[in-house]
């Protein structure tokens, strides 16, 4: 049997890692992750207009290993490109929760940082990281392609150095994020994703995963339906 198969390449919280090669594999995986990212761009606002030049020949983000992806299931990065209305935020959250971990969020434009010019709008969610963890913000109204590329490079560097772990916060402090979502959408807010189940799966369940808001969710949460694949003959 190939001895390489015995090398633990994933950190297990309940298992002490003694193999000296484990760290080398971790670093190799982090490097590969940082150089092969699929990006889902949720063009919520006017800042999205700077994405096409960032993708095309002059700036060419694909040379960094980043390319657009059309579905959340295969995407690593979620780009939120501008102001987010309350109605749109629901879709952004549904998209985020469908992405597989590890997943990363970049907030582009001042509107995602603090509401920008819509700071006084009744219909706009002001601070994106109150509703989902954000890895990198790129401020500006609107940020130029150079700034978008610089933000992506910052994220790549964070992942390569093992610091791209904001996604874990969504599981560890789910009650905080859910509370902000309920405040905006009402107490009956529910997504079809079992976030607490995922937190258990990843071993990221903590004291702040649960709280008064997850209790409200439990009171009205409907069991998730099994997805049945029907094959028509
Ligand atoms: S920061 Fe400016 S360009 Fe970006 S979404 Fe807001 S208003 Fe539009």
Radius of gyration: 19 Å
Oligomer: single chain
Q: Helix amount, in percent?
A: 25-40%
User: Helical stretch count?
Assistant: 9
Number of domains: 2
The distinct ligands, each listed once, are: iron/sulfur cluster
CATH topology of the largest domain: Rossmann fold
Largest sheet: 5 strands, parallel
Strand order of the largest sheet: 2-1-3-5-7
Shape: flat
Mean pLDDT: 87
For the structure shown, list the relevant keywords.
233 residues, Rossmann fold, 2 domains, two-stranded antiparallel ribbon, 9 helices, 7 strands, binds iron/sulfur cluster
Question: Could you characterize the architecture of this molecule?
Answer:
It is a single chain. The model is unreliable at 227-233 (pLDDT under 50). Helices cover 37% and strands 11% of the residues. The chain has nine helices and seven strands; from the N terminus they run αβαβββαβαββααααα. The longest helix is centred in the middle third of the chain and has 16 residues, at 145-160. The protein has helices at 22-34, 51-55, 86-98, 110-114, 145-160, 167-172, 174-185, 195-202, 212-220; strands at 37-42, 66-68, 77-81, 84-85, 104-108, 124-125, 136-138. The protein has 233 residues and is an alpha/beta fold. It has two domains: 11-165, Rossmann fold; 168-220, no CATH class. It has a five-stranded parallel β-sheet, with helices on both faces. The structure holds iron/sulfur cluster. Residues 45-47, 82-83, 109-111, 116-117, 141-142 line the site of iron/sulfur cluster.
